[in-house]
Amino acid sequence: MIRLSAITPSGPVQLGNYLGAIRRWAAEGTEEDVYFISDLHAMTTSHNPSRLRSLTREQLAVLIAAGVDPRSVAVQSDLVRELGALTWVLECTCTYGEAARMIQFKEKSAGRSSVRLSLLTYPVLMAADILLQGAHEVPVGDDQRQHVELARVLARRFNGTYGEVFVMPRSVVAPTAARVRDLADPSRKMAKSAKDAAGTVFVLDPPDLVRRKIRRAVTDDLGVVRYAPEEQPGVANLLEILAACTGKDPEGLAGSVQDYAELKEAAADAVIEELRPVREVTQGLLDDPAELDRARAHGAERSRERCTHRLDAALRMSGLG
Ligand code: ATP
Ligand code: MG
């Protein structure tokens, strides 16, 4: 059973990525699974080439440092030729209406004067990611479910028109591990690409910066430490972060802390300890480019081996070659 997940190098890896996704990939992932660093997807909006390259390397290093099986990690663009070829065939299987209907496209393009064509077509590239690897399951949040549905529509249509090539993927609800909120605005989730990084803890932030950011976290003026996500989202977020780092439950933790200052110090201590080994190993990998390159080449080779026959079949059966 192949499970496929991805992380986009749209910004430095943040605490939510780690607690909500990467840590679980390390604990539960198998060698069969695929973890893509989707640098091609990061190009659908304005990007800077050297920053994209360094964020991609950083993500690769963080995933490996966090203990994700290096054999299952691959940089998407290392398969750009294969993916580009299949994307074309799938674009010739997809209608304009199907792509234009994607809610994420509507949201991300709304009100913009200049929208890259790739923002419209990227769900087809995502379908190529999934179908080329023969993924059975794609764990996603609500925002990506529609894209996996499109991959299913395209797989079914291709198989029905030209012959059975693709495994039918299905979206599965990504287990609700920690959902980390922005420290400066707890009504939003923490995100790599947030415009203002004040409320975002990055995995590679030095400990004193992590502590400063957590000390400045927005709370409320009720002055009681309770786990009440609706009324006290800032406090609840700190309790959830503390819970995710200590393996305890947020309600229980609420009773063990006196005030907001103590909660913030406890959360800062826990986050710093949780991130320390990941940060140190990541730094070591970034300082040893040869080892990181080897891991990257190996991951690319593995995912290429897995997909070549399927790509060849798709090209041949649709009338190419
Ligand atoms: P972007 O701002 O570019 O959307 P992001 O931080 O939301 O960046 P993604 O690349 O969209 O990151 O997601 C990578 C993984 O991290 C996904 O599995 C996603 O569910 C998880 N994730 C992202 N943000 C959080 C968060 N705040 N809490 C828990 N999990 C998160
Ligand atoms: Mg996101």
Task: Describe what is shown at a glance.
This protein has 321 residues and is mainly alpha-helical. 56% of the residues lie in helices and 6% in strands. The strands form two sheets. A three-stranded parallel beta sheet has the order 1-2-3.
What is the CATH third-level topology name of the largest domain?
Rossmann fold
CATH top level label of the largest domain: Alpha Beta
Cofactors and ligands present?
A: adenosine-5'-triphosphate, magnesium ion
List the total number of helices: 12
Rounded Rg: 21 Å
Strand content: 5-15%
pLDDT under 50 segments (min length 5)?
none
The beta-strand count equals 5
**Helix and strand element order:** EHEHEHHHHEHEHHHHH
GO molecular function: ATP binding; tryptophan-tRNA ligase activity
Family: Belongs to the class-I aminoacyl-tRNA synthetase family.
Organism: Saccharothrix carnea
GO biological process, one term: tryptophanyl-tRNA aminoacylation
